[in-house]
């Protein structure tokens, strides 16, 4: 193992007899210089050229004990150590992992390990600052990673990315699959030509003939399969009807099952506090981050606005760039305004523009163009009072 300068200095200090934590070391070169019974009771250990004697009467490789104690002395900073050296010993007492002792990793920073809860509590005061810093770094690594696609994913039929414009796709209440307008239109044309009944393009379940029937199908699926998409849809219906308490419960359950849109709706409710829901900035930020990590472009754009409100413009710009590369037009507008003010670098803005165009192009196809035009015409006719809304 390669020793840094500070490690070598601490090694000399510790081997010279300085007591650190529950273990003190006395320099020696042979096994004949073991501590006596009184010294063992006082926690005195002996450091040989290749192993150490501890109060637990176990031999531990010298480098492991000194490594753990030197790290403990500097507050648990593992940043300059190799990965294999970070987890070889308990960060508090220095004992190495063996058949009888299983070390458990700190769940927050993933950088140190402990042999017991007692050691973890004793080391907390020294490790807290470094732990918090490393945990924040790990969180940012996840938060600022560019998602491969939006939270909508791909159409399960044509396998092209779904457009983030919700008018260009439709969720089937029978199977909770989001189908693009192109595939839904192609299925409709096939059924018309063959004289078939209207069914779901994906699961072939008969399509609901009314909104009430679609709601009943959605409720049945939510209750029977614990489907997060169906549960979120129930929450959205309650939200639109003004039943915010029930909506909150549905969104919370959906988010717990992995619904990205569930996290997003929780963030809006914690921000606006409708229907007596208590406003909470911390929870709003958490759910915005979870939705952003899941690829929700609107959540990412809103998170950029929150960061700007807090004066962290560099982080805000990163969020807008990520959302823009997902194809979000609102984030692109936000980024353009900041670029004209000189708050965003030219290269970053150009990269975001290219990413935005690539994301939009990936969602387009001739079949989708036909489907989107057809369904847009249907919506326009309904708005003018022609036809039925089904």
Automatic annotation (TrEMBL):
Q: Where is the MYND-type domain?
A: 90-131
> InterPro entries under this entry?
Sel1-like (IPR006597), Sel1_AlgK (IPR050767), TPR-like_helical_dom_sf (IPR011990), Znf_MYND (IPR002893)
SMART domains with a match to the protein in the record? SEL1
Q: Which domain of life is it from?
A: Eukaryota
Among Pfam families, the record links this protein to: zf-MYND
Q: Name one GO molecular function term.
A: zinc ion binding
UniProtKB keywords: Metal-binding, Zinc, Zinc-finger
Task: Report the family membership.
Answer: Belongs to the sel-1 family.
**Name the UniProt record assigns to this protein:** MYND-type domain-containing protein
The scientific name of the source species is Skeletonema marinoi
């Amino acid at each position: 193992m390669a020793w840094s300068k500070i490690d070598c200095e601490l090694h000399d200090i510790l081997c010279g007899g300085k007591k650190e934590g529950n273990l003190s070391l006395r320099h020696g070169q042979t096994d004949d210089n073991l501590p006596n019974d009184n010294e063992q009771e006082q926690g005195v250990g002996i450091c040989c050229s290749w192993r150490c004697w501890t109060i637990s009467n176990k031999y531990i490789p010298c480098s492991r004990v000194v490594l753990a104690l030197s790290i403990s002395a500097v507050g648990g900073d593992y940043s300059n150590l190799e990965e294999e050296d970070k987890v070889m010993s308990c960060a508090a007492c220095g004992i190495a992992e063996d058949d009888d002792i299983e070390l458990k990793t700190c769940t927050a920073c993933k950088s140190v390990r402990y042999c017991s809860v007692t050691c973890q509590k004793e080391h907390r005061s020294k490790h807290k600052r470094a732990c918090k810093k490393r945990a924040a770094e790990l969180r940012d690594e996840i938060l600022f990673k560019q998602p491969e696609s939006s939270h909508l994913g791909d159409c399960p039929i044509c396998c092209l990315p779904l457009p983030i414009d919700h008018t260009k796709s439709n969720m089937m209440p029978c199977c909770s699959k989001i189908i693009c307008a192109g595939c839904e239109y192609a299925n409709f044309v096939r059924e018309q030509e063959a004289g078939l009944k209207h069914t779901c393009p994906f699961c072939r379940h008969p399509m609901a003939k009314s909104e009430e029937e679609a709601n009943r199908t959605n409720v049945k699926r939510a209750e029977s399969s614990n489907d997060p998409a169906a549960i979120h849809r129930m929450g959205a219906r309650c939200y639109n009807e003004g039943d915010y308490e029930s909506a909150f419960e549905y969104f919370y359950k959906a988010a717990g099952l992995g619904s990205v849109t569930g996290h997003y709706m929780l963030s809006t409710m914690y921000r606006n506090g409708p229907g007596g829901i208590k406003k909470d900035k911390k929870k709003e930020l958490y759910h915005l981050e979870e939705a952003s990590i899941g690829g929700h472009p609107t959540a990412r754009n809103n998170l950029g606005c929150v960061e700007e409100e807090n004066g962290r413009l560099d982080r805000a710009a990163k969020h807008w760039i990520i959302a823009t590369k997902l194809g979000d037009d609102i984030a692109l507008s936000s980024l353009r305004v900041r670029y004209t003010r000189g708050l965003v670098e030219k290269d970053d803005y150009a990269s975001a523009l290219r990413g935005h165009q690539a994301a939009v192009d990936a969602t387009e196809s001739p079949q989708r163009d036909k489907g989107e035009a057809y369904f847009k015409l249907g919506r326009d006719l309904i708005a003018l009072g022609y036809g039925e809304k089904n």
